[in-house]
Every structure is written in structure tokens, then in C-alpha cells.
Amino acid sequence: MKSMVDISNFLYPKTLEEAERIQKEFLKKLVLVPLDFSKVSLIAGVDVSYVDDQALGIVVVINKNFEIIEVVHERLKVTFPYIPGFLAFREAPVILKCFEKLKNTPDVILFDGQGIAHPRRLGIASHVGILLNIPTIGVAKTILYGKCEKPSFVGQATELKDRNGEVIGFCYLSKKNTKPIVISPGYKTDLESSLHIVKSLLNGFKLPEPVRLAHYYSQKLKM
DNA sequence: GCGACAG
DNA sequence: ATCTTGTCGC
Where is this site: Interaction with target DNA (predicted)? Predict the structure, then answer.
């Protein structure tokens, strides 16, 4: 996949204030529209793990039959600390590096983290989606921002709402004896389509297959 | 000022 | 995320 990202400026803020300005600027570019899963053929999953001060990024591309089409990985020294609300500034660099190497162009990308379920609507899924101009969805293991009632049975989705009561995502019980996952649209997807797509990719596991595989490979690559 | 707080 | 063994539940 060809690199079309004008890296450098907004990728490495020097202060939190600068990072917040970038998020507010990116918010203007945020687009939330339905994504027809029937027109999707390639789905990517992204994950990042760490070894000392090195970030290991992984992108796994599968088709709708859950067959692995491509896997790429890259390493990059981390330059930004982990600060809730600013995860993208820590992980986007190595993720973008992976996409520069990727030959396929996925129709939608699933992230391990939030989409718009974020204080400024700019979780890592939204952030990277804007940079790549590819539809994205956030699939997190815990809530960063917002409140929702706990789903009580497998398959139930409860609305995740912000302080104003606006729905920004869903808490979804994808499997028995597990914690609900947090689903939110990232970019060029919406609430309904992001939930539908994630459900379609579960394949019996807690996390959608692309994300599960990405996490699996990122861990295995360190052995 | 006191909690909450993706990976 | 990462440091780490066994263990409860399906």
C-alpha cells in the first residue's frame, strides 16, 4: 500500500497542548457514514506491543472467510509516553510504517482502542483513519470515556453515552465469562455499521478475528 | 480539589 | 502495554 501520509508535523507533538490542538484540528476532518459490509472484502486488524523502548506494530489482513491475506510488522523507537486520551501519538508512527509496507489496501481497519468513544472524539481508530483515509472501527477491552450499562447476556449491546447522553459507541458482550468489549466507529463508519461489522468478525472469540490475530502475532513475534 | 483514566 | 502461576469456568 502506497504511503500517502504527510508525516512529520502532526505526528510528533512536543507538548500535550500541541497534541490536543492536533486532535481538535483532526476533529474537523472526522467523517461518520455507514459502511456497507457486503461491499467489504479485505479487513485489517492492528496491534502494537512493546519491548523495552521499541514499539512493535502488526497489521493482519484477512478476507471474509477469515483467511489470512497478508501480515506485516515494523519496529520503531517509542517517542511519546502513554497518556490516556493520547494513545495515537504513541502508536500511530509504527502503525503508519506498517501500512507503508502493506501491499493490500484494506476496506476497513479494526483497532485495539477507541474510535469516537474518546473525550475529544479522537481515539486512535479515528486518528489513524483520518491519516490513512480508510474506514476504521475501534474495539477496546475497557472504556476510556463514557458510561454504559453492563450487557447481561451474550449478544447484547448497550449504548455507551457521553456526558451529554449522546451515544458514542456500544458495550457488547461477545462471549460468556468475559468482560464486554467496547465498540465505536472510528472514521467513515457509523454506530450501526461498526457494531454490525464487529459482530460479523467475532468467529466465536471475544475479540473480532483481525484484532485477535494481530494481538497474537505481536506477542509471538517477541519470542 | 477528588476520581477516572484505551494500550 | 508489561511483570508473572496457578486456577476457575465452559
Answer: 82
Give me the mean pLDDT over the A203-213 stretch.
97
Range 170-209, chain A: CB under 7 Å to any strand C atom: 176-177
Rounded to whole angstroms, the Cα distance separating A56 from A53 reads: 10
Q: What is the pLDDT of residues A111-163, one digit of tens each?
A: 999 999 999 999 999 999 999 999 999 999 999 999 999 999 999 999 999 99
Q: What is the pLDDT of residue A5?
A: 56
Percent of chain A with pLDDT over 90: 94
Give me the CA A50–C1' C9 separation in Å, rounded: 31
CB A183 within 8 A of CB A206: no
8 Å CB contact between A201 and A208: yes
Residue A7 lies in a domain: no
Tell me the nt nearest to A177, Cα to C1': C9
Q: Is A47 annotated as a binding residue?
A: yes
Distance, CA of A129 to C1' of B5, in Å? 23
- CATH of residue A184's domain is 3.30.2170.10
Domain that holds residue A188: 16-220
What amino acid is encoded at A153 in this protein?
A: F
pLDDT tens for residues A51-70?
Answer: 999 999 999 999 999 999 99
Q: Is the CB of A186 under 7 A from strand B?
A: no
Neighbours of A124 (CB within 10 A): 28
| A71 falls within a domain | yes
Q: What is the pLDDT of residue A10?
A: 82
**φ, ψ at A110 (rounded to 5°):** -105, 135
Which nucleotides of strand C are protein-proximal, with an atom < 7 A from a CB? 1-2, 9-10
